[in-house]
TrEMBL record:
Protein name, entry field: Glycogen debranching enzyme (Alpha-1,6-glucosidase)
Segments forming domain Mannosylglycerate hydrolase MGH1-like glycoside hydrolase: 431-588
Pfam family, one: MGH1-like_GH
Organism name: Streptosporangium canum
Residue ranges annotated for the Putative glycogen debranching enzyme N-terminal domain, each copy included: 20-199
BP GO terms, sorted: carbohydrate metabolic process
SUPFAM superfamilies assigned: Six-hairpin glycosidases
């Protein structure tokens, strides 16, 4: 089995599980804290399930769950009670499990005796591991290897599979009595007192053990993830508003993005990149990481720099049909599991994405517009040109995709499920396929390169890329526009025929500015029509299409990041009311989802169900969903910097009584305040003019800039 070509959906985790994340590690468990075998629960690191069972028993009986208290994304406290003591009707033994995830696991287990008599009891922790690859678990096809050995020693248990060269060491302080599959503690809990044991799970990769990031040998607040989180909170912009839901949603976004950051151990001074999301995508992705770091720019720009640098290091160098690597191409995802045959630290890249490469160029162009990391952006210009070489070798004028072998993804845009691209009658489109939004990304990439050339004073190169942008824009509006229907086709198929379904993809085309202004009214009307807009967001596919299914992954569901891009596109073309409907619909949905937007939710109309219906296998937290509220606020502020040209546009709509301090821009920190319909911007670096009006949608074209 190849995980990249798995076309099903992973098993649902359900609403009774808890997911904790930190960097490339995560834990999925029951609400009582137990990890129950037989499903997707477990402790994961480097795309490997270190533990598939972790069940607590007190006097051979399970603990009754009372409450789970979640704090930081990597930490939860599970509160429960043991069974009644002998001769008693009610329990007097409180059980507290403080769990920290990161590079393995730390759990501080406390038994608190609430009675006047000492409690003698036996505490057992049942431990098991299948050392399974993440792809196997996701597909529900775990290949159980027979050589997973569990060896007791003085400090706990050693779990190891020689064939996979992976495992874990489980330690306890005080040391337990260990037998294969179980840690045993015989304890006496003093009257009105406590007994505590600290447990630690260290990963073993390629035979090498590394300590969990939250070590039992030092206070939790001194652990690297805790220090990074404190710095992240301290350096992030702060928001002041009486609008509690908005404040809560943005706080949750900041917390989740901080936990999804990826730091490279061998590059401690390098800014982080960002993982796509838990539980199945806790690794670097091309498209996801690029779009997330773009949307997070008002919060932090180091994510964008770290992401583009890491992607540049992994940029394609050779032709390899099995991984779809090609010179200049930006990867789709990086994996570390046994199944990929990858080293645990280097990882193995798969390149089956048509949009990562233009998005890479776009993000570098946007960093330039924000006036940050100028030298670093300049250093990556060879990578930009390599990326554009790959695009122009493949595009004439449109950029198509078709997988190289049957090991690759069939669809290679963001709607990458096997049935994600279809005609209005439901017929699946056959590759090679040119997607509408991808042509918009290519247009924006060409335009960004023209701006780089303009600033370098290279008029010939500027003209070349401006001509390239003009050519694809004109061809796109001619070939993709369906005049009899008033919207853009989702793509062109193998025969060059327009794929005529009404889908959300054209909203991305508004965002990139490739849409002709005389067509924008019709596009906006379709996106906000009852067939597309649910009241909480725009569906991926219109309810009038043959493949429509509101409970599907890409054919009628609502994706927050998709909607954030659509709202930005609508705002760019001046459709402020329509953009606000989407923005506030999503923010209402976030409140209902406990302040955290999921990867996607079902596309039922608000008139049918008052609350949004969850999608069972949706990732949460998920990176671009976490970044969505930040992008929505930027859109509502209509905040658009162009630092190299010495200009900033800001013209808020739908927001009031709002103050944001410490927004990074051009090496400075600026403050924005919206009150009584007016906006003020302070701390702007010298030489930059603030315009209290929105930027014209076509202002990105060089020949239209004064």
């Amino acid at each position: 089995m190849n995980g990249w070509t798995f076309e099903g959906q992973p098993g649902a985790l359900g609403d009774t599980t808890v997911t904790l994340v930190e960097g490339g590690s995560f834990c999925v468990c029951a609400r009582g804290g137990d990890i129950v075998p037989g499903g997707a629960q477990g402790v994961y690191h480097a795309d490997t399930r270190l533990l598939s069972r972790w069940e607590l028993r007190v006097d051979d009986a399970p603990v009754e769950a009372l409450r789970v208290l979640t704090g930081e994304p990597y930490h939860a406290t599970f509160v429960g009670r043991a069974g009644p003591r002998p001769g008693r009707a009610e329990s007097s033994l409180l059980v507290i499990r403080d769990r920290y995830v990161g590079g393995g696991l730390r759990e501080d287990l406390t038994l608190r005796n609430l009675s006047d008599e000492p409690a003698g009891c036996v505490v057992d922790i049942h431990v098991s591991s299948d050392v399974a690859d993440l792809f196997e678990v996701k597909a529900g096809r775990v290949r159980y290897v027979p050589d997973v050995e569990m060896t007791p020693d003085r400090s706990g248990l050693l779990v190891f599979s020689a064939s996979r060269s992976r495992g874990a060491r489980v330690l306890g302080e005080p040391a337990p009595f260990a037998v294969p599959g179980m840690l045993i503690f015989r304890v006496v809990v003093p009257a009105r007192g406590e007994w505590t044991v600290s447990l630690q799970v260290n990963p073993i990769l390629e035979g090498e053990e590394s300590p969990a990031w939250f070590s039992t040998h030092r206070p939790v607040e001194h652990a690297e993830p805790a220090r990074r989180r404190a710095d992240w909170a301290r350096l992030s912009p702060s928001l002041s508003t009486p609008d509690r839901p908005l404040s809560q949603v943005l706080h949750r976004s900041r917390e989740d993005l901080g936990a999804l950051r990826l730091f490279e151990p061998d590059r401690p001074d390098e800014p982080p990149s960002i993982a796509a999301g838990a539980p199945w995508f806790m690794t670097l992705f091309g498209r996801d990481s690029l779009l997330t770091s773009w949307m997070a720019l008002p919060l932090d720009q180091s994510l964008a720099l770290g992401t583009v640098r890491r992607l540049a290091r992994l940029q394609g160098r050779i032709d390899d049909p099995l991984t779809e690597e090609e010179p200049g191409k930006i990867l789709h995802e990086l994996r570390f599991g046994v199944q990929t045959g990858a080293p645990p630290h280097g990882g193995r890249a798969y390149y089956g994405s048509v949009d990562s490469t233009p998005l890479f160029v776009m993000l570098l162009g946007e960093l330039r517009r924000w006036g940050v990391h100028g030298e670093a952006v300049e250093e990556l210009m060879p990578n930009v040109d390599d990326a554009l070489d790959w695009i122009t070798r493949s595009a004439d004028p449109f950029l198509f995709y078709r997988r190289k072998t049957d090991h690759g993804l069939l669809n290679q845009g963001w709607k990458d499920s096997f049935d994600g691209v279809n005609f209005a009658d439901g017929t699946l489109a056959r590759p090679p396929i040119a997607l509408a939004e991808v042509q918009g990304y290519v247009y924006a990439a060409y335009t960004a390169r023209a701006h780089f050339a303009h600033e370098a004073g290279d008029q010939g190169l500027e003209t070349h890329w401006t001509d390239q942008a003009t050519r694809i824009r004109e061809a796109f509006n001619e070939r993709f526009w369906l005049p009899e229907r008033g919207y853009y086709a989702i793509g062109l198929d193998a025969g060059g025929r327009p794929i005529d379904s009404l889908a959300s993809n054209m909203g991305h085309c508004l965002w990139t500015g490739i849409v002709d202004e005389d067509k924008a009214d019709a596009v906006a009307a379709h996106l906000l029509s009852p067939e597309m807009f649910t009241g909480y967001g725009v569906r991926t596919l219109s309810s009038g299409m043959g493949a429509y299914n509101p409970m599907s992954y890409h054919n009628g569901s609502v994706w927050p990041h998709d909607n954030a891009i659509i709202a930005a596109g609508l705002m760019r073309y001046g459709f402020t009311e329509e953009a606000q409907r989407i923005a506030f619909g999503l923010l209402e949905a976030a409140e209902i989802f406990g302040w955290r937007l999921p990867e996607l939710f079902c596309g039922f109309g608000r008139d049918e169900f008052a609350w949004p219906v969850p999608y069972p296998t949706s990732c949460s937290p998920q990176a671009w969903a976490a970044a969505t509220p930040i992008q929505l606020v930027r859109s509502l502020l209509r905040f658009d910097p162009w630092v190299p040209r010495g200009q900033i546009w800001v013209a808020p709509v739908g927001l009031d009584n709002l103050r944001i301090t410490g927004v990074p821009l051009a090496g400075a920190r600026i403050d924005l305040e919206v009150a009584d319909g007016d906006v003020s911007v302070t701390g702007v670096p010298a030489g930059i003019t603030v315009h209290s009006e929105p930027r014209h949608p076509m202002r990105a074209a060089l020949h239209q800039v004064s």
